[in-house]
Amino acid sequence: MITVLETGPLATIQDAGRAGQAALGVPTSGACDAASYGLANRLVGNQPGAAALEITFGGLVLHADTDLTIAVTGAPCSGVPLNAPTLLRAGEVLRFGLPRSGLRTYLAVRGGIDVPAVLGSRSTDLLSGLGPAPLEAGTTLPVGRLCGPMPGVDLAPVADPAADTLRVQITPGPRRDWFTDAGWASLLSQTYAVSSNSNRVGVRLDGIPLERARDGELSSEGMALGAIQIPPSGLPVVFLADHPVTGGYPVIAYVSAASLAGCAQLRPGQGVRFSG
Amino acid sequence: MQILPAGDRALLVELDGLDEVLGYYTALLADPAPHAVDVVPAARTVLVTTAGSLDELRRHLMSVQPLTTAQSAGDLLEVPVIYDGADLADVASLLGCSPADVVERHTSEQWTVAFCGFAPGFGYLTGTADWNIPRRSSPRTKVPVGAVGLAGEFSGVYPRESPGGWQLIGRTDLQIFDQQRDPAALFHPGRRVRFIEAS
Fold it and tell me: Each residue of A172-218: pLDDT tens digit?
């Protein structure tokens, strides 16, 4: 068992999400930075899909009620061991300081966080209100048995998330033709700034509005992870894990799979440049 | 039919309208694309995400023939409704009839869940008659769970309390979405729905 003493700005339980139910209006949700989440589970020998904690901008303080094997990945917070399986003794307190770069840190516990699954997942979906509530001080977290052998790895060599302007690879989306060539060129040439309105639904970007080639409204259509939607403001929103199943604004481009984890680590004020 | 790009893990199939979307979606359920993860019908499109290659997905999507409306009709769900919605009188005047006529038209219509979205379990239901109801000019901040509404060509039931701009004509006690139940959602694309006046 683990007891939450302090939560920081936002800490949630996340796993691989609820894929396969989008036709019922159920978003996928799950860990925003799937790569860091997967690594944390592997480092403690967990089965893929075991639930972990997603810590937003540090600040989480945990008390180990029993001996635990843990791994911390993603945004490198001060005060905690990074990218390495670590034994936390019963009675010890783990304090996540501020990350030196990035936004989201993952804590996997050997065995997985064992809260009841909702629609096949233990993920907190902040848009739909599905899954467990965000962590609160006093929450106790049971630990499960979703693990196999330990991996025999002492330390995973992983680069820190980008601290300065992030380069994001994109491909044209289904509604590229709703924008002028000048609009497309503007998307690729400007340095956007991440807005403080960003959350698990999407990264909102501040910059110069994009020029549309046509007026009118789009019928709502399905959206996938990494969609870059352009609302009437002309400013992009990059969809993350809790994005809605459908949306009514044109998707000018999609983030390439290799750039998705980086987008989940963007923090307010950071720069973003898209490359086609 | 046109296949549009949607990133490294999905393709967007653009079709002529709701009937063709449902026919295509139903055909895809019967003959799923290998490695497909999610299939999301909407008003004019079907989005398919895949854990496999896009080339493989594209080949499969090209080969799918939409079923006819009759072939894609699903099973029937009956939804008991108490027609006491706050907007029933407004809807009646928009349609140029009495509130009782609205109830008669709503209960005699054959509705089909065209697609879901907005919230888990929220279905967009289409009928055969010419429903064209504008949304409320100012959306409500709180629509209660079970509220039955109309907007545009659609009817729907709010699966939980939420903000909403649909014209409310009644309410049902049927829990159309329950995350603890299997299946959680009673509305799924293709399902036929008949509203019944509850006594």
Answer: 999 999 999 999 999 999 999 999 999 999 999 999 999 999 988 89
Nearest CA among B99, B46, B178, B14 for reference residue A23: B46
Check if the beta carbon of residue A27 is closer than 8 Å to that of residue A243. yes
**ipTM attached to this prediction:** 0.95
Domain parsing of chain B, residue ranges: 2-63, 76-197
pTM, two decimals, is 0.94
Q: A133 CB near a chain B CB, below 8 Å? A: no
Provide the CATH topology of domain B76-197. Answer: Cyclophilin (2.40.100)
* A61-112 tens-digit pLDDT: 999 999 999 999 999 999 999 999 999 999 999 999 999 999 999 999 999 9
Q: What is B2-63's CATH topology?
A: Gyrase A; domain 2 (3.30.1360)
Cβ–Cβ contact A22 with B under 8 A: yes
Q: Which residues in chain B land under pLDDT 50? A: none
Length of chain A: 276
Interface A:B, Cβ pairs < 8 A: 123
CA within 13 Å, CB half, B104 = 7
Question: How many separate domains does chain A show?
Answer: 2
> The dihedral of CA B45, B51, B55, B56: what is its sign?
negative
Structure tokens at B183: 């299946």
Quote the CA–CA distance of A225 and B8 in Å, as a whole number.
10
For chain B, how big is the Rg over CA atoms in Å?
Answer: 18
